[in-house]
Amino acid sequence: MTTSAPTFSREGAGNLDQTLRPNTWEEYIGQTKTKENLRILLTAARERGHAAEHVLLYGPPGLGKTTLANLIAKTLGTNMKTTSGPAIERVGDLAAILTNLTPGDVLFIDEIHRLSKSIEEVLYPAMESGVLDIIIGKGPSARTVQLELPPFTLVAATTRISLLSAPLRSRFSGGTFRLEFYSDTELARILARSASLLGVATSEGILANIATRCRATPRTANYLLKRCRDMAQLENSDLTSDIVGRTFALLEIDPLGLNAPDRAVLNAIIHKFNGGPVGLNTIAAATGEEQSTIEDVIEPYLIRQGLLERTPRGRVASAEAYKHLETI
Questions:
Q1: What does the domain layout of the chain look like in residue ranges?
Q2: Most buried residue, 180, 186, 187, 240, by CB count within 10 Å?
Q3: pTM of the model
Q4: Which of the following is catalytic: 82, 83, 159, 282?
């Protein structure tokens, strides 16, 4: 007996994420103050017929920085060219991007904190004066040629704004905006919209339950919804409380949204080091996680939930951490 090879739709992960991305300011839930500031800035620029001033968006991953960049371009009625800090390795890479822009384009640079200082310096005159300074030749015969660039709007995103130099930060004349974490109510609204787009039949109560485990982040909310949908599909079921509970059990996500690595860190501090204080390198050795992963990925959420404290002597598990682990 032979079986035919499976066929795969182009409606894959990338297209699905694009489907769930808000296309209008009204569909974009949360970040109210940032949205209003941007809408004023962009509407005024469009009415004047000018390129909007440069904008810097910062905050933890998954809060909607890329989506905002898309909405900025749509509001201005222009194209958006997308790149990232790690992709711009040489000055020539940036020069090629800038010289290929058309008037009014939005240039979106994600992870801009990963640009080298030499590339940052090329950006200064491009952002401030709309020119690109290119050095031709070497040594005493070297000379600078100045190219005029088309008017453009730079929208940059970063999760680590402290790594940007002060001169670069100051050139975002349109504003620097911090994206905030989302409330459970906002996440439930996001989940309701996504469930509708995915054709998932469920209830407000179940979506509210999912929202409490999303780490205050829309990207996580959509990820969890898609995994619950997968389980429901295999069971030929609507999205029920039982389906959601079983999905979370498989993913090892508890009622606070903590996952297995989060709990491993807390368990190590409490059971191996009497609750702390204990150093980061010791926790890394005890859990098998890299120090950078603990510091940048795991700790921020534990601290925000009041489960972990950073002290001069090391990390300390809070009383709430003890209580939480006892209930799991």
A1: 31-178, 184-251, 260-327
A2: 187
A3: 0.87
A4: 159
Closest CA to 301 of 249, 265, 251: 265
- Please provide the DSSP assignment of 37-93 as one string: HHHHHHHHHHHHT-PPPPEEEESSTTSSHHHHHHHHHHHHT--EEEEEGGG--SHHH
- The pLDDT value given to residue 14: 54
Q: Any catalytic annotation for residue 184?
A: no
Active site residue 219: yes
Nearest residue to 210 via CA among 231, 180, 179: 231
Structure tokens at 124: 């200064």
Distance CA 289, CA 215 (A): 20
Q: Check: CATH 3.40.50.620 for 31-178?
A: no
Per-residue pLDDT at 15 exceeds 80:
no
Q: Is 144 a catalytic residue?
A: no
pLDDT at residue 103 is higher than 70: yes
- Contact between 283 and 294 under an 8 Å Cβ cutoff? The reply is yes
Give the separation between CA 11 and CA 281, rounded to whole angstroms. Answer: 43
Query: In the annotation, is 159 catalytic?
Result: yes
Confidence check: pLDDT of 13 > 60? no
Topology given in CATH for the domain delimited by 260-327:
Arc Repressor Mutant, subunit A (1.10.10)
* Active-site residue, from 65, 171, 213, 315: 65
Rounded Cα–Cα distance for residues 114 and 120 (Å): 10
